[in-house]
């Protein structure tokens, strides 16, 4: 694993995001998916402290932390279930003091992943941060 803030790292991270979202976010409309993806390199990735997981020098997953919040954690669909997500989460907790994460309520696999890792439900919002109709669960580390 390595940290990065280099824009040259962004294109493979966008590809990982796309792969992960295609596998887990079937509730997102195509319009919303395209809008979010269009802002990854310009808004979302530069705003967080990134950690990139690699296998044989190739990025396979990444996380982003800001002010104790795990803002993003995505693993390439080909590598789901291989422990990369757990390693990224553990790094975010131990090295970046991540204690909070917001998860789309419809992403049941992610909710189960975080609760299995010791997070509990601390609140809920009817919409996501952009006001889209995707409820968020606000989770906090026990």
UniProtKB/TrEMBL annotation:
Q: State if Transferase is listed as a keyword.
A: yes
Q: Does the keyword Acyltransferase apply?
A: yes
Entry keywords, A to Z: Acyltransferase, Transferase
Q: What class of enzyme is it?
A: transferase
Domain N-acetyltransferase positions: 1-142
The family database entries (NCBIfam families) matched by this protein are listed as: PRK10514.1
Q: What is this protein called?
A: Putative acetyltransferase
Organism of origin:
Brevibacterium aurantiacum
Lineage of source species: Bacteria, Bacillati, Actinomycetota, Actinomycetes, Micrococcales
